[in-house]
Design a protein that fits this description.
Elements (H helix, E strand, L loop, with lengths): L2 H4 L8 E4 L3 H11 L1 H36 L7 E2 L4 H7 L2 H21 L4 E5 L2 E9 L2 E5 L7 H15 L3 E5 L5 H9 L4 E3 L3 H10 L9 E3 L4 H10 L4 E2 L7 E6 L5 H12 L6 E6 L2 H14 L6 H11 L1 E4 L3 H11 L3 E5 L3 H7 L5 E4 L31 E9 L1 H17 L3 H11 L8
Parallel strand pairs: 1-12, 5-6, 5-8, 6-7, 8-9, 10-11, 10-13, 11-12, 13-14
Antiparallel strand pairs: 2-7, 3-4, 4-15
């Protein structure tokens, strides 16, 4: 591709960055650090909130709800929320679709559940036992748009794991969110969100019980709080602003690429809709499609703001560079609008969810919190395993003890662990050790 061909891209809502320019390299570096940059910007405020909630309990949770959410919750914990009523108030066709999504997510989550493991190795019975945590909480995404699906994606794996007490933290859930919570068996509603909800759930208050796992994407402050309370509780990931990375070559259909970008851009103003393209003509067509499709979008203002602030198109010369840049960005959702998508997927390690095929949209996702903010490099899409504890098991037979004791004691002493050597040798003198 010649330099003049790369520059022949129609202007539009996406900022175009051409490979080989300083702006391309700077934008790529900034996006690679996007997660920590955002979290560090709010960390001082979040530390203050967590400290106040830990020591002040319900009183501080209420104060921060008033300050951060502009509301005074009537009760902090409600174990009799009207989820069933919300389900009745929704249109019948919406309820049917909601139940269909729950069923699909449940079937996928059940397949993720690992079987318990037991086997014998040289006379030693080894194994692994899996048990659900006693109590977990899921965070509803802030606002009303996409909140119900976020609750389902985070909550269904918890239910598939067998968590008996599942809380939902949501400041002002609408009927769709309440109905989703009811369908997956949420046992209580915590009527606050953000960092104050994370603090209350991690430490416990007079009203809100302490949980073992906090899951779901509750917004930027909640993500920062999850990072800071990790260790007090397990977390499923940090989440972050919704993001999509579309990979487009000359085979891409511009209307579909634009539709995928808008599906994320409409969620919030901080959403990240990005494209990496190898063909300037396709990129021009995507720009034109964005301008056309956004006109009829009910959340046009939000989508426009997202695209203008954060929308970017990286124009590269070859397919190999397309994949290299995608790997560096480590996006939560990657939409493959390329030839041989399975081959491209085999080359990509750092992504939370991949979709391909002209009939597949982001709605087809299979559940769990997507790893935003670049954490897909090391943190995959969360699953049932987040809500399970693993216990390793071991039992030695008499024959195995007699065969292995000398070697175990020798190695233990070589490491300076005399107590461990004696613990092995002591068992050799037991009557049970002489059994056949």
């Amino acid at each position: 591709m010649l330099p003049e061909e790369m520059s022949a891209v129609a202007r539009g809502l996406l900022t175009v960055l051409e490979q080989g320019t300083t702006s391309f390299d700077e934008a790529l570096l900034g996006l690679q650090e996007r997660g920590m940059t955002l979290l560090e910007s709010v960390e001082p405020a979040v530390r203050q909130i967590l400290g106040d909630v830990r020591h002040g309990g319900d009183l501080m949770v209420r104060r921060y709800a008033e300050r951060m959410e502009g509301r005074a919750p009537t009760r902090l914990l409600d174990r009799y929320f009207d989820g069933e009523g919300a389900l009745r108030r929704l249109p019948r066709e919406v309820v049917q679709e909601l139940k269909g999504v729950v069923g699909r997510l449940q079937r996928f989550a059940q397949r993720q559940r690992e079987p318990e493991l037991r086997y014998e190795d040289g006379g030693v019975l080894l194994g692994q036992r899996l048990r659900p945590v006693r109590r977990a909480a899921i965070l509803a995404p802030p606002g009303k748009v996409g909140a119900a699906l976020g609750v389902l994606r985070a909550g269904v794996p918890a239910r598939a794991a067998g968590v008996p007490d599942l809380l939902l933290a949501a400041a002002e859930p609408n009927d769709l969110t309440l109905a989703a919570a009811h369908l997956i068996g949420v046992t209580a509603l915590v009527q606050v969100g953000g960092a104050q909800a994370v603090g209350a759930l991690a430490y416990g208050t007079e009203t809100i019980p302490r949980v073992d796992v906090i899951a779901g994407d509750g917004g930027l402050y909640a993500a920062c709080a999850k990072r800071l309370v990790f260790g007090y509780v397990q977390v499923d990931g940090l989440g972050g602003p919704p993001e999509v990375l579309a990979l487009a070559d000359s085979s891409a259909r511009a209307p579909l690429v634009a539709a995928d970008l808008l599906a994320v851009a409409e969620l919030e103003e901080d959403a990240l809709p990005l494209v990496i393209a190898t063909d300037p003509r396709i990129l021009s067509a995507i720009q034109q499609e964005l301008g056309r499709q956004i006109q009829g979008l009910p959340r046009r203002v939000t989508a426009m703001t997202s695209l203008e602030r954060h929308g970017k198109a990286f124009l590269v010369r070859q397919r190999e560079q397309l994949l290299t840049v995608a790997e560096q960005l480590a996006f939560a959702w990657v939409a493959l609008h390329v030839e041989r998508p399975e081959d491209a997927l085999d080359r990509l390690r750092s992504l939370g969810e991949a979709t391909w095929g002209v009939l597949t949209s982001g709605w087809a996702g299979a559940g769990g919190l997507l790893p935003g903010g670049g954490t897909a490099r090391f943190w995959g899409n969360s699953s049932v395993s987040v809500f399970l504890t693993r216990t390793t098991l071991a039992r030695t037979s008499p024959g195995a003890l007699r065969a292995q004791a000398d070697g175990q004691a020798l190695l233990a002493r070589a490491e300076g662990r005399e107590g461990q050597a004696r613990a092995v040798e002591l068992r050799l003198g037991l009557p049970e050790a002489r059994e056949k």
